[in-house]
Predict the structure of FadR/GntR family transcriptional regulator.
Amino acid sequence: MAVTDEAIEKIKGMIVSGALRPGDRLPKESELAADLGLSRNSLREAVRALSLIRILDVRQGDGTYVTSLDPQLLLEALSFVVDFHRDDTVLEFLAVRRILEPAATAMAALRISEQQLGALEAQLDKLGDQPSVEELVACDLEFHRGIVQSAGNSVLCSLLDGLSGPTTRARIWRGLTQEDAVSGTLREHRAILAALRDRDTEAARSWATVHIASVEQWLRSTL
């Protein structure tokens, strides 16, 4: 094991064991290096690496702290990695969305508040019947994010947020090239919203599946 990897594992072990908790300040560099049997150099490299993935927060002049370890914060690293996807992996991202998002939408049917439902409806009303493709895709992202947030699972929300980026270009491409793609998307959004209003988990799940699968099927036919 590389020296830096060993240092990372040792700091990780302290956090997992509870020796360091969210919000705790790490001991002084010299003390921590001695306690862990590490060189100060390898410790510095480990701290730098763990700060990049939001495990540690290095505050100039104040010290290094364990972050809140909130799922949304930790999964920011996923979004960063996802940005390096290749075009030929978009179908794989859509397949993962098709597994996760219908489940989140079904959960939302039981938890979503009237206020949240009103906000979703206002989004669709503001969009109108003939939006541009870019306006529709931007609304699509916000619409689904609002639904997933109302499901009440921060890990699921962060995962889907990170996975939505790679499919944006495919959705714009579809809107520009497939006849009735815009009107079809609007109909599907209304159907999802109606299922949420009815607190119908299976209808919400089904419409979310149809919505994602339609993009996936179109993309398969064009590749």
User: Anything to note?
Assistant: The radius of gyration is 22 Å.
